[in-house]
Amino acid sequence: MPVYLTLHAPAQVSAQILVQEVMVQPGKPIWLDPGEEVDGVVLLQAQTNSSVARSIRVEATLGERFLDGFQVEVYRAACSLPSGQIRQDELEVSPLQRERMALVA
């Protein structure tokens, strides 16, 4: 059955959706058997923290019927250098961030 993934994000945010390690363009179908569940990853990229501070949603539909969806909340963005490496100070977790992560888990 063709399932369509739709991304709802601010225009300043670019996103990649990976389903079973294969990149899927939003709006293009993925094929699943009835009841099948697959792993997926959403990679977000934005120039500013305020861009990703807004709600970002991914929804799955079958035809016009809503199947499932999830909302992404970015609490602490990982900043990268032009080379793509993550800054060392971004890897450190503050006590407040640790507390937030414990509440989510």
Features:
105 residues, alpha+beta, 2 domains, four-stranded antiparallel sheet, three-stranded antiparallel sheet, 17% helix, 38% strand
Overall description:
β2 and β3 (22-24) form a beta hairpin. The protein is built from 3 helices and 7 strands. The chain has helices at 49-52, 88-91, 95-104; strands at residues 2-8, 14-19, 22-24, 29-31, 40-45, 56-62, 65-72. The model has no long low-confidence stretch (mean pLDDT 75). The protein is elongated. The strands form 2 sheets. Strands 4-1-6-7 form a 4-stranded antiparallel beta sheet, with no helix packed on it. Strands 3-2-5 form a 3-stranded antiparallel beta sheet, with no helix packed on it. The protein is of the alpha+beta class and 105 residues long. The protein has 2 domains: 2-74, no CATH class; 77-105, no CATH class. The longest helix is centred in the C-terminal third of the chain and has 10 residues, at 95-104.
